Structures are given as C-alpha cells and as structure tokens.
Fold this sequence. Notes:
Jelly Rolls; 9% helix; three-stranded antiparallel sheet; 1 helix; 153 residues; globular
Amino acid sequence: MNNSIIFDETKIDWKPLPDPNGNPAEHISMSILMLDEEAKIADVLFKFAGNAKILKHRHTCNYSTFTVKGELRIFDAQENLIEVRPAGTFKWGKVGEAHTEGGGAEDVVALFSLRPYSASAPIYEILDDHMQVAATVTFEDLMELNAEYSAQA
C-alpha cells in the first residue's frame, strides 16, 4: 500500500505579504494556516520565488521552519549564501541576525511556526537599505491580515 502524500501548492490560497509601504512585497506570498490566540503562535506557509530574495529582515522571536517543497536559501545581510535547506529540512531558530532568503532554482514553500508568545511583540523586523527597522510584524498584524483575507474570500 502506498501512503505517500503529494503536496500541491496550487491548492493553497496564497496571499500577498505587505511590504513596509503596504504594497505586496516582492518574491513572497503567504497562507496563514493557524493562529493560536491563547498561546500567540502562528503557523504560516510562505512561498518564496525561485532565484530571488525577499526583503532583509530579522527574526525577533523563536520559530521553526520545515521546507515543504524546493530549496530554501538563506543569505546574510551582505547577501552571501550561508545556508541551503532542501525539502524535508526542519530547523529551529531564535532571535537572529539580519538576513534575506529566497528560493533555489524553483519556488520554495516553507512552513514557519512563529512563536512570539505575545500579541504585540515583533515577530519580524523588516529592514531598509541602511539596516534600519522599516516595519515590524506582530501577532496582532497577522490577526488583522487573516481577518482581511478571510473577509475577501
């Protein structure tokens, strides 16, 4: 008997992730899977474009990632490749250094379990070209985005 599961990203309701100006950020889309309002944990699928990088940012809370499809590439703040996470890779992270990430030769889909444990503490800091904080993303922000996207459905 074959119990394999085939992941089909076309079945996911991908939404844009707003950039600091409120426009859709380039090279990334998202699907909020679960928001635990009591524990303040968010599980989000992100899709990063192949051969592209998203905005520089810094994780400001604990998180874990699981690469579902493709190859997640992590770059330092100077955009040097520092890590490659092929499909099937699980990684636990915590507050970290500024970086960017993106897909390998094809789009990559990764599950991020974000654990700010607070409604208002930042999950991410989005950085500008001078490495200054241009915007933050909190659990409350994800709740608002989820409500907005659910209202559009």
